[in-house]
Amino acid sequence: MKNKPSKDSLAVALDAVNDRWSLHIVRALAFGASRYTEILRSVGAPRDVLSARLKKLAETGIIQARSSESGVAGYELTQKGNDLGQVILVLKRWGDLYKPDDVSQVDFTHTACGNAFVADVRCEACGSSVKSGELAVRSTEHEG
Predict the structure, then answer these.
(1) 54 in helix, strand or coil?
(2) How many CB atoms lie within 10 A of CB 54?
(3) Bridge partner residues of 76 (DSSP)
(4) Which residues contact 42 (CB under 8 A, 6 or more apart)?
(5) Strand segments (E) across the chain
(6) How far apart are the first and last CA of the chain?
(7) In 3-state terms, what secondary structure has residue 57?
(8) Cβ(126)–Cβ(134) under 8 Å?
(9) What is the pLDDT of residues 59-111, one digit of tens each?
(10) For 129-141, what is each residue's pLDDT tens digit?
């Protein structure tokens, strides 16, 4: 019998992007792609797979379809999708540390201050950076 992970907020979050293409789509939209063909070119997924993932991301409220004045339909991130972008920035930092030497790096500038941006996970209570191994799991049960 296969063990199934318990359903908690982390499991729900992982399920929202648990395929090969969803985070790539969110990345493409965050980097300015909006039309289907732009997303297709950026992501490289097969057309049927891309269409299915766009539909799934729209159903979960991460992206939404939009139309422009010219009537050309496209996609954009919702607030939920923009918030997911913070997760991608932390993944980017991990990728920067462990990428092969022949892989290029994308860097960001924080427009508010003009300095290079590096994602950092911090404790909301004390403001300290959080390192791996400094957290303990504490479950809060949902009361229904």
Answers:
(1) helix
(2) 22
(3) 64
(4) 24, 27, 28, 31, 33
(5) 63-67, 73-77, 108-109, 116-117
(6) 29
(7) helix
(8) no
(9) 999 999 987 777 667 999 999 999 998 899 999 999 999 999 999 998 999 99
(10) 998 889 898 877 7
